[in-house]
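Much of the work behind modern protein science is quiet bookkeeping, done one molecule at a time. The fold becomes a row of whole numbers, each drawn from a learned catalogue of backbone shapes. The protein below has been through that process, and both of its lines are reproduced in full.
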Amino acid sequence: MNINDCEKLKKGIEIIEEFLKEFEGKKVNFAGDYCHRFKNIFYQNGGLDEFFVHLFPDEKLNDFSKTLDSLTSSNSNIVNGNLQAGTLGSDNYNMEMDKLKEMLNDMKTVLTDFRNTEDVRNIFVYYSCESHLKDSTNCSFIEDALSEVIEKTKNELGVSIELDKDTGDAIKALTDERVIRVFNEASGSVKNLPFDIKSKRRIKFDFSGNISQEDKNKEIKEKFINEVYNAIKLINENE
């Protein structure tokens, strides 16, 4: 599963939790505020997103689809705020509310269980560097930045990255499209790279480790972290 799907999963769980929390002790009039948010997360091209179609169990798919339709359709009594105890009668109203909450809790359980499986929570990044270069401005700098990329990916996308060092020929193992090259311009010139690497995509940074440039060093590192994060995200979205 790619990071884009992980993000859908995370947002789906979050909106259900938020909805159920606001639901407690309230009439359902507020539900109209959630119509477009549910639609943006769970629907694509006018229908239920294929990701959720394949994720929801067959025996639950119809019930879950009807529940989401009731929360996203402009003709829905729930969205329009027409579902009231006074119009339905107290018993019928309570039954409708209980059914809606039951379906949303079931949906949340399915999504949460799926998120907690090993394949969803983890992606792998294989990392190696030129060990003959100055460690503090190259290998250690890159590895430290990757630690922050891992934390950023977990916090923002709900995905864990496992880092594996020095595993061999990355291009043969992963294909060129999945390799992220980084180059420290403080250690040399791109012009001196081998001809078959010179034209490849790379992330450039210029870090000399000068302790008198603390603010600049921090800025360089933050920019590098964001570029590596975006490159990893893009690769996984295109899986």
Q: What stands out?
A: Residues 52 and 109 are 13 Å apart (CA to CA). Residues 90-115 form the longest helix (26 residues). Residues 84-89 have pLDDT under 50 and may be disordered.
